[in-house]
Design goal:
The protein is mainly α. It has six helices and no strands. It has a domain of 116 residues.
Amino acid sequence: MTDKSDKEAPGKPLPGPLPGKGTRVVEIIELPNKLRAKVGGTDGKPGQIDPAAIERANNHVARMAKAHQAQTRIDLTSLQAAFEQAKRDPENRARHLRKVYKISDGIMTLGRTFGYNLLSDFANSMNQFLVDLESPTDALLTVVGLHIDAMHVVVRDDIKGDGGELGQALTKSLALARAKMIHKR
């Protein structure tokens, strides 16, 4: 069914029953393209988005990106504080590490949105490591600390994308640290 002349009438059964199910009834509903109409388009003709609206949107995204950088610095400070509490308070370590996980999850979620893929990767890697920790020892916390340090480097040096050679080296060293600790569990 490629054009309107080939379409069945609304509600008319399509040929052939389904095995053991009887006949099929399909109604084809064509909805208007409201987005095309909003940008001045008509049937078959695309519209155009107002260049001033695009400029306003780009400016808004740029402001949000700057706000994201500031918020990430605040989040990293909170993350570091929760991590330090986990190191100092073994009795409540699991509670503090849940806070670390939660803060890191927020960092991970927004990092890619604003081009900080490496930051998101490190947060994700740390969270996967945290999920598997049943009884976090001081040695295992070292790996968590390395991830937090790597996130600080990404933000401090404003490393976007995959971070190039530095990003690869950091990623490799964190993977090695995780692997060593996983075998010692």
